[in-house]
């Protein structure tokens, strides 16, 4: 009897609990319907990212789609995306925007060149666009942004003065209303209220890429074709090199010449191999290692061919080592005499640096806070690399000294140095005319 009473009480309690839960579900459904109605009538989707004070508006078709789905459980943003393909792009395109140039530095060791068109990742360009998308500074896609770059540096090459140009979001409404050169307007406003492009981007970029400054540019500006000149540095250790002979030979590059014997020829796309070198110099750097001085070759010109600087430096090293005479430069620049480039290896890519790109009227700037943060970051990176160098130097000091008798012997045999083959005696590559003839034959086939 007692057991039956207990079961009855348990069933009653459970029934009461079920009734209570059912009632609570009904209350929640009522609240959900109320909030859904409020959300459907909300116009907050017409504003995007209040942090940058950029207002946008949706057109009447989006408003109609929103109201017709007020009873749906889907969010307004999801409804709009379904009804209007490309909604996000349209919202972004309504933002105020400005055409600007950015000055960029990067340490190229881990990258497969600058251009994102390369088949390998990462590239500097791909990292920059990731940061632009992450910070929501990009207006539209890459093509719509009217993007251009000054130099397309190769794998491993670094830069401290690369320049790119593109449309970025802006806080100044005048840039939307006036489709013209925005430099005067920004000068009048003294950059007040504008997005701090340097700060925003540097927070999103990897440690080995940094934006140094920005500058508004006219709509006809192109980072590649508006550039007046480019300067490259090539760093090297001067031990056992005849620097006077190298500098004497290097001055022969100054002027306008046909540099087809000092580049990697692209006969499909490049038909003019004449370029103008405006200055050449070799100067010491403020760095030494075990009494070995670091030097820099400085080459400035209006434009350069593919691998031109590395090919020029490679021949200069042969001259500095005493393998070639400085007169070999004259011979290689005479393409009537030497129409086919002798086969030789380029200088390594890591020591090459795009130092600066020259433009008329561009003055790159950044806020004082951004400049201070940039200097602190670069100083920290320098300290880290010095620490790494100290570790390798300590390991070097810990190595067992090599006995004199073992320096030239290996398992009882004497190592022979490879003999130098003069450039003029080496096999040659096809000439430009031969390459073009081969391309034309392929097209006919």
Helix content: 25-40%
Major β-sheet, in short?
9 strands, mixed
Oligomer: single chain
Unreliable stretches (pLDDT < 50, length at least 5) are 44-72, 79-92, 177-190
Structural class: alpha+beta
Please, how many helices?
A: 14
Under the CATH scheme, which architecture of the domain at 228-357 would be assigned? 2-Layer Sandwich
Do you know the CATH topology of the domain at 228-357? Answer: Alpha-Beta Plaits
Relative strand content? 15-25%
How would the global form be characterised? elongated
Radius of gyration: 33 Å
How many β-strand stretches? 11
Secondary-structure topology with pairs:
Layout: H1 2-40, H2 60-68, H3 76-83, H4 87-93, E1 97-106, H5 124-134, E2 148-149, E3 158-169, H6 174-177, H7 183-189, H8 197-204, E4 209-216, E5 229-237, H9 243-250, E6 255-258, E7 274-289, E8 292-301, H10 308-320, H11 327-333, E9 352-358, H12 368-398, H13 404-407, E10 409-410, E11 413-414, H14 432-444
Parallel strand pairs: 3-9
Antiparallel strand pairs: 1-3, 1-4, 2-3, 5-8, 5-9, 6-7, 7-8, 10-11
Helix pairs in contact: 9-10
Region (Disordered): 55-77, 403-445
Pfam families: PseudoU_synth_1
Family: Belongs to the tRNA pseudouridine synthase TruA family.
């Amino acid at each position: 009897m007692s057991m039956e009473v207990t079961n009855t009480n348990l069933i009653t309690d459970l029934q009461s609990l079920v009734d209570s839960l059912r009632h609570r579900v009904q209350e929640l459904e009522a609240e959900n319907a109320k909030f859904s109605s409020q959300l459907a009538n909300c116009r907050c989707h017409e504003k995007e990212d209040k942090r940058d004070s950029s207002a946008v508006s949706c057109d009447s078709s989006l408003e109609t789609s929103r109201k017709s789905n007020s009873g749906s459980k889907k969010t307004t943003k999801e409804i709009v995306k379904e009804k209007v393909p490309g909604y996000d792009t349209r919202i972004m395109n309504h933002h105020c925007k400005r055409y600007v140039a950015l000055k960029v530095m990067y340490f190229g060791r881990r990258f497969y060149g600058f251009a994102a068109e390369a088949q390998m990742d990462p590239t500097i360009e791909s990292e920059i666009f990731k940061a632009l998308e992450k910070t929501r500074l990009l207006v539209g896609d890459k093509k719509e942004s009217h993007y251009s770059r000054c130099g397309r540096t190769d794998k491993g090459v670094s830069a401290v003065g690369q320049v790119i140009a593109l449309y970025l979001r802006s806080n100044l409404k005048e840039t939307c209303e006036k489709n013209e050169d925005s430099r005067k307007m920004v000068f009048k406003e003294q950059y007040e209220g504008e997005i701090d492009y340097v700060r925003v981007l540097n927070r999103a970029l990897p440690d080995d890429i940094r934006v140094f400054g920005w500058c508004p540019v006219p709509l006809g500006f192109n980072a590649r074709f508006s550039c007046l000149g480019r300067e490259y540095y090539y760093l090297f250790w001067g031990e056992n090199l005849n620097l006077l002979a190298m500098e004497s030979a290097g001055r022969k590059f100054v002027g306008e010449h046909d540099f087809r014997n000092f580049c990697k020829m692209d006969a499909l796309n490049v038909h003019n191999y004449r370029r103008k070198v405006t200055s050449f110099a070799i100067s010491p750097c403020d760095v030494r290692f075990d009494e070995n001085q670091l030097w820099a070759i400085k080459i400035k010109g209006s434009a350069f061919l593919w691998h031109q600087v590395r090919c020029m430096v490679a021949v200069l090293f042969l001259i500095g080592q005493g393998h070639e005479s400085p007169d070999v430069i004259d011979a290689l620049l005479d393409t009537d005499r030497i129409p086919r480039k002798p086969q030789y290896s380029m200088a390594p890519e890591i020591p090459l640096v795009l130092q600066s790109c020259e433009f008329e009227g561009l003055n790159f700037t950044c806020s004082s806070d951004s400049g201070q943060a940039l200097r602190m970051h670069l100083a920290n990176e320098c300290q880290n690399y010095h620490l790494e160098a100290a570790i390798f130097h300590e390991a070097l000091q810990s190595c067992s000294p090599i006995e004199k008798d073992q320096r030239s012997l290996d398992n009882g045999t004497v190592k022979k140095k490879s003999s130098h083959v003069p450039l003029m005696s080496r096999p040659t590559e096809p000439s430009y005319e031969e390459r073009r003839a081969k391309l034309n034959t392929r097209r006919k086939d």
